[in-house]
Amino acid sequence: MIINLKTDKKPKTKATTLLLLKGTEISGKGRGKWIFVTHDILPDLGEQIIESLKQAGTQRLSLQTTMMDTNDNNSPITFKHEPPLLHIAASSLAAGKKLLHFVKSTCAMRESGLVVTDQRVTVEIRTTGTLLCLPLMVQSDTSLQPNEVYLMALADMANKRMEQNGVLLEKLFYTIQNELFDTSSNNHSVEEGEAEFHVSFEPLPSLNSWKCASVAISSKSQGGETSDDVEILAFGGQGVGPIIDECSNTTTKAPSCRRWDAIFRLSRENGAWAKSWKRLSIATEEHSETVTLQTSAGSFEVNRKTLLGTREGHTACVLPSISSSSSKDDGVAIFGGRTGGPTSPSNDLFLFKLQDDDKGVIGTPVDVRGSPPVPRFGHSMNALASMQSDDIIIPLAVVSGGYSGKAALSCIHILSRSLDSDTGKTYFLWEHIADMPHPRCYHSATVLQINQGEDELFVFGGMSEPDDPFSSIEKFVYKLPIQRECSVPSKEIIISEEFNIPESIGAAACSFYMLPDKTGMMLLSGGVQNGDSGCASNDEAPLHIIKWKVNSNGATLRPERARYSVTGCKGELDLGSLVHHNMLNLQCSRGSISAAFVGGGVPSFSFGQSFARSFAVSITSASAINNREGKTSKTNTARQGSQTTVGPKSKQTQNNRNVTDVVYVAPKDAKSARLELEKLGYFDSRYKLVKVEVDENEGDKKIVIGLPITQHCSSLSLSEGKEGLSQRLQSLVIGWGEEMAPFSSSQMSKMANKAS
Q1: Bridge partners, residue 706, by sequence
Q2: What does the alpha-carbon distance between residue 380 and residue 38 come to, in Å, rounded to a whole number?
Q3: What is the DSSP string of 44-83?
Q4: What is the pLDDT of residues 436-463, one digit of tens each?
Q5: CA–CA separation, 693 vs 146, rounded Å?
Q6: pLDDT tens-digit series, residues 601-651
Q7: Residues whose CB falls within 8 Å of the CB of residue 564, separated by 6 or more in sequence, listed in order
Q8: Please, what is the angle between helix 711-720 and helix 622-639, to 10°?
Q9: Residue 595 near residue 617 (C-beta atoms within 8 A)
Q10: HEC string of 266-311?
Q11: Which residues lie across from 333 on neighbouring strands?
């Protein structure tokens, strides 16, 4: 079940007070016309009803007099007060049953039911508890039967029942909100127990497209180390597309939902994300159809005559590096997808290379050998770990599952780079290496190198019959070890139930390797969940973090689902419609990792498309943050030569205040610093700014302003000092510390609402 829940909007009543004059003309679902309609509670409802009835009687009398109408025009006028009526499309029969249970048991709307067809499951929510329906008469002399006293009492009853409709709808709204959604957005523990990680979200410009293929390319400095600059590329997809900045003062947006053949780019430079996406152009300067692309995975000849075309359900990955190279040499492989209807899957393989900020080269490789996968869409494609090797055959990526247009697939293929011994040229090689125990499509997958020299493919969720809304979602996690020494692994697939995560379709996954304690990390986000529960309840997390640790002997420990808390978000944290999206690995540093949610959404047969918002996600180890408490005094001492510092205070809450991490700035710089912190998503809006008096030399006092910051910003100050901030902030910040800060007005309101 997919419902876009906006907690700041109350449900609008569809109940209506109506007067229907029968037998005059055909309108709506039956004979007659409406002579009075209102959707509101009216203080003068009785007077308006009486006036409408008299006008109707006058019209009847006029017809009889002027047109010599001999028909019976004394047919009754029907007074109707309608109860609420809602239709909600559910993702599965189990989801529909769950919602129906809430509606009947909690809201007492017992006339509700399910409408099940081959195409969809619809929950019809209705009740007759507030229904009023009775006949009224207008005599030939326009006198009313019943009389006006009765009609005034009837109007009062209709107004009261309209109020009851509002109470019913509000109760239904909060039942759905509390039972199916987790609506808290800041500083809440997703899982019980002490948090091991702290997660913060930063909104990105929305892609407004689902089933696209996206990759993230990290820029590299001259020394070969990864910098903070990132390029996100999105290929094709279905949707209205992003708001595009065409280097002008205006922005444009695609008017309707369609399948795209474009390549979009979103950049992060010096820690700041671009405000909008840009559309890349394809380089066409050279006249030759065939061109050699130099990539970090090798040199490949491609035919530029075949372009991407309109495509959805395809996948892409950045090919791993087999030599030290700059990010400009990163090659992107794009595979499969649907170019038309369900019967037009493809097994096209494309190679893309970013030339500069606004152009790229794309084409189909000229030399592709082996046994290619059958045409498919709804599959996964994951890059294997980078390695420097002189081997003839080097595995680059793995493709698993998908839908052929007729059935879900279970096959797993490896795409390798190989060297022709006769010509000395490189080419792509497809090899079928294994089959999953069960076919699946619209699953999520990621690759993690837990042991040196061995990649492991993890496949989560998915479904076996995409055309059947009642087909079960796979519950098991498949784990396939891929030995790098040989091109075709022989180890069998392991079915694992250790992960304790809900099965889902349309989810996304990515993996990291967090230093310094060699913790393997996998993130799993979004998707539509199924099973006995029907759909996600409010105890399900929007993000699942799975971790491995390697002990001192090098042995891999059992995977664990990590506990975490969401510590901040710039703006509203809206994770609705997070289906058929991409999750990209952005960066991994000491004690923290970052990823991005890009694209995603769902169609609706009644309400139009709904697109997921894009976010940059920062995940920081709680141990790195907790170390700050023990190191604050030492850090403060080390900074005293050039920065103002304030000693730590004990963690406590009193008088609507709470101890929080802050950065100190001069009073004249407070506004500029706050704007910069908000821009980077580092400002903690739960608290107000605090004025602090500090000691200077010779007993003088100095006033500074403490600005509350997020846990992620605080961890940056611990591990990297000022260098972890933007250049603008570096020039404004004079120190770090902890202060007892008052809660903001919005936070106080949230706390009051929660308490009530």
Answers
A1: 664, 690
A2: 53
A3: THHHHHHHHHHHHHHHHHHHHHHS---S---PPEEEEEPP
A4: 888 889 999 988 876 666 778 888 888 8
A5: 78
A6: 877 655 567 788 899 998 888 766 555 444 443 334 333 333 333 333 333
A7: 190, 191, 195, 196, 197, 198, 199, 541, 543, 545, 619
A8: 50
A9: yes
A10: EEEECCEECCCEEECEECCCCCCCEEEEEECCEEEEEECCCCCCCC
A11: 317, 351
Q: Is the pTM of this model over 0.85?
A: no
Q: How many CB atoms lie within 10 A of CB 31?
A: 14
Question: What whole-number distance in Å separates Cα of residue 209 and Cα of residue 214?
Answer: 11
Measured CA to CA, the distance from residue 178 to residue 184 in angstroms comes to: 10
End-to-end CA distance of the chain: 29
State both tokens at 60. Answer: 């009847």
Distance of CA 171 to the CA centre of its chain: 27
How far is the C-alpha of 85 from the C-alpha of 96, rounded, in Å? 16
Query: Which letter, b or e, does each residue of 59-93 get, where b requires 16 or more Cβ atoms within 10 Å of its Cβ?
Result: ebbeeeeeeeeeeebebebebbbbbbeeebbbbbe
**Contact yes or no for 529/469 (Cβ under 8 A):** no
Q: Is the Cβ–Cβ distance between 575 and 184 less than 8 Å? A: no
- HSE of 19, CA atoms in CB hemisphere, 13 A: 22
Indicate the residue type of 549: K
Q: Tell me the sheet residues that pair with 135.
A: 78
